[in-house]
Design goal:
There is one protein chain. The chain is built from 21 helices and 24 strands. By secondary structure, the protein is α/β, with parallel strands linked by helices. It has an eight-stranded antiparallel beta sheet with strand order 3-2-4-1-10-9-11-14, covered by helices on one side. Strands 5-6-7-8-12-13 form a six-stranded antiparallel beta sheet. A hairpin with a 6-residue loop joins strand 7 and strand 8. The model has no long low-confidence stretch (mean pLDDT 93). The structure holds 6-O-phosphono-alpha-D-glucopyranose. 6-O-phosphono-alpha-D-glucopyranose binds next to helix 10.
Length: 613
């Protein structure tokens, strides 16, 4: 999500930091900051100027910053605390002599903050990162050495991080560490670098090393020493870099969409992170709706557009089954013109990756005026919807550059299903064991997604086989229906081919009339309760000459017998299946677009954020 950079031993440290941050701009960010150190003091500058932050940062730094040889820098994509100068990194400790930058999520930051505040620490930001800084400060008082202090602090941290810490008491030293979030080190002569991503250092050095989980690096000018959490010396991995800057910005993938497809396991893990406490209770602290309000709800209305609408449709099945509440899902642009019946017992849930889509925003405003409780599930902290809603549930997918939504959609489904389980817990409609069972399964989604994404070559073969077709029908039933809709949407957005999504049961009410040889039917027949009925639909379209691709669970021989092509996915329960079933449909759309020579990141006529009606 965020991008980090650090340098020690460079005559042009300020330029290293600013140039590096510029190269991390492709990640998308809302604020930026740097800190340069000498024995006397820390020179810190931070700005929250949206995507202009690095440019503005260049303007505000003063001439004396140039005289420092070591520093750290950060571009932030807000997760904890809104985008502001005060929440931008680097953060300082109470003494003002220790600076820290961080990428990742400290899951137990609330507990750590409570303890530190009790011990007298003063927090001045809303971030989880600042807590980490104070934790290192506390340990520094005990151990006296920055490396030992960071090691001891990290032993207490749950979550993901790549961090870099500096102290004015030893200003040539940077201590950096990682768990889950990536961190690389570069050495070039007497200069040492660190960064979250390769592009930040290209042009400076290609002599790069990668840290593995729970490794800590001590960087001094021209040298690095890496140890594990027990203090044992480890040999960091050498990175072979044959990328140019542009492909490095895409993480080595051909385009942002492919990169973002591969980021889906992380997006799901981060969206779940820290939201279930040790006793198994779901904690959605920014929802700001009391248990009393949630218990008294009479219905839920989901409003959204595009792919977010499809995530909302999946949630309908989950909310109804788990929370036993009636659910309506509306296209936001229709909702506000249909005079919906709402009162304070209705929960209206806006779903939007951007938090800015004007139709969804207006639908939420309309719901508030009608007295309903309004919350939003969105990916951008402090977006218009987040500011106006009574409560927020953030997806933590990180910035999405590709116009066609991928990782934000799977994160939305997971966030909405967490909300469904939370409602079930508060309202007592599921037993503790039932909730725990679903949560266990949700934790496995990260692995299931990895596995599904890893099967791209099989999807590519299917795409090649149907590359000449012009008409695609996606069929699904139950939670497989929104999956089919999303598959059709991705295909039309990216490949400009005709694609429609239908519930399988509607086939006989129209679409069957146009099925003929040359049409491709993609049937989502993963293990939902209506699989048999789905296969009956497959037989109907096959009898009329369509080419049939079936999305089936591993080992499903019944499906293999009726399909022209089978795309196999790992099994999951019906309500969680869409999270990984969407993946091969994203890949199919992307391969078909590529075979037609199209730019998958920027489909014609479409925009990432639609702020006009
Ligand atoms: C645009 C984007 C889609 C997105 C839709 C809704 O059409 O291209 O990817 O699903 O808007 O956007 P939102 O930001 O509200 O989720």
């Amino acid at each position: 999500m965020c991008g980090i950079i650090g340098v020690t031993g460079a005559a042009d440290a300020l330029d290293v930091l600013l140039d590096g941050l510029e190269r991390l701009e492709y990640r998308g960010y809302d604020s930026a900051g740097i800190a340069l150190l000498d024995h006397e003091e820390i020179f810190r500058a931070r700005v929250a100027d949206g995507t202009h932050s690095v440019t503005t940062l260049r303007k505000v730094v003063k001439a004396d910053y140039r005289q420092r040889a070591a520093g750290i820098g950060h571009v932030r994509w807000a997760t904890h605390g809104h985008p502001s100068e005060g929440n931008a990194h680097p953060h300082l400790d109470c003494s003002g002599r220790l600076a820290i930058i961080h990428n990742g999520i400290v899951e137990n930051h609330s507990q750590l903050a409570a303890r530190l505040i009790k011990a007298g620490h003063v927090m001045v930001s809303e971030t989880d990162t600042e807590v980490l800084g104070h934790l290192v400060e506390e340990q520094l008082r005990r151990s006296g050495g920055l490396l030992e202090a960071v090691r001891a602090a990290l032993a207490e941290v749950r979550g993901s991080f790549s961090i870099a810490v500096m102290s004015a008491d030893d200003p040539e030293l940077i201590v950096a560490a990682r768990r889950i979030s990536p961190l690389i080190i570069g050495i070039d002569g007497a200069v040492s670098y660190l960064a979250s991503d390769i592009p930040a250092l290209l042009g400076r050095t290609r002599n790069l090393l990668a840290l593995d989980d729970d490794q800590i690096a001590e960087l001094r000018p021209g040298s690095v020493r890496v140890t594990d959490l027990d203090g044992q010396i480890v040999e960091p991995r050498q990175l072979i870099v044959d990328w140019d800057v542009e492909s490095a910005q895409k993480g080595g993938y051909d385009n942002f969409m492919t990169k973002e497809i591969h980021e889906q396991p992380r997006a799901v893990a981060d969206t779940l992170a820290g939201r279930v406490d040790a006793s198994g209770t779901i904690v959605l602290d920014q929802l700001l709706l009391s248990d009393e309000i949630l218990s008294g709800l009479s219905k839920i209305v989901v409003v959204a557009c595009g792919s977010s609408f499809h995530a909302g449709l999946v949630a309908k099945y989950a909310f109804e089954r788990w929370a036993r509440l009636p659910v309506e899902v509306d296209i936001a642009s229709e909702f506000r013109y249909r005079d919906p019946v709402l009162d304070e017992t209705c929960l209206v849930v806006g779903v939007s990756q951007s938090g800015e889509t004007v139709d969804t925003l207006q639908a939420m405003r309309h719901a508030r005026e009608s007295g309903a409780r309004v919350i939003v599930v969105c990916n951008v902290v402090d977006s218009s919807m987040a500011r106006e809603a009574d409560g927020v549930l953030y997806t933590r997918a990180g910035p999405e550059v590709g116009v066609a939504a991928t990782k934000t959609v799977v994160a939305q489904i997971v966030a909405l299903e967490l909300l469904g389980l939370h409602l079930a817990q508060v309202r007592g409609s599921l037993s503790g064991a039932e909730v725990a069972g679903v949560l266990d399964e949700m934790r496995q989604l990260e692995q299931l997604l990895e596995e599904t994404i890893g099967r791209a070559a099989a999807v590519e073969e299917v795409a090649e086989a149907v590359a000449g077709a012009r008409d695609f029908f996606f069929l699904g039933r139950h939670a497989g229906y929104p999956t089919a809709l999303e598959g059709a949407l991705k295909l039309k957005e990216l490949s400009y081919l005709h694609a429609e999504g239908y519930p399988g049961g509607e086939l006989k009410h129209g679409p069957l009339a146009v099925i003929e040889p040359g049409c491709v039917v993609v049937a989502v027949a993963t293990g939902g309760p209506l699989k048999e009925k789905m296969l009956a639909n497959v037989a109907e379209v096959k009898a009329r000459g369509a080419t049939v691709i079936v999305l089936a669970e591993d080992g499903d021989d019944e499906v293999a017998a009726v399909a022209d092509f089978v795309i196999s996915v790992p099994a999951a329960s019906d309500l969680l299946s869409p999270v990984k079933d969407i993946v091969p449909l994203q890949q199919l759309a992307s391969y078909l677009a590529r075979s037609r020579g199209l730019d998958v990141d920027r489909p014609r006529n479409l925009a990432k954020t639609v702020t006009v009606e």
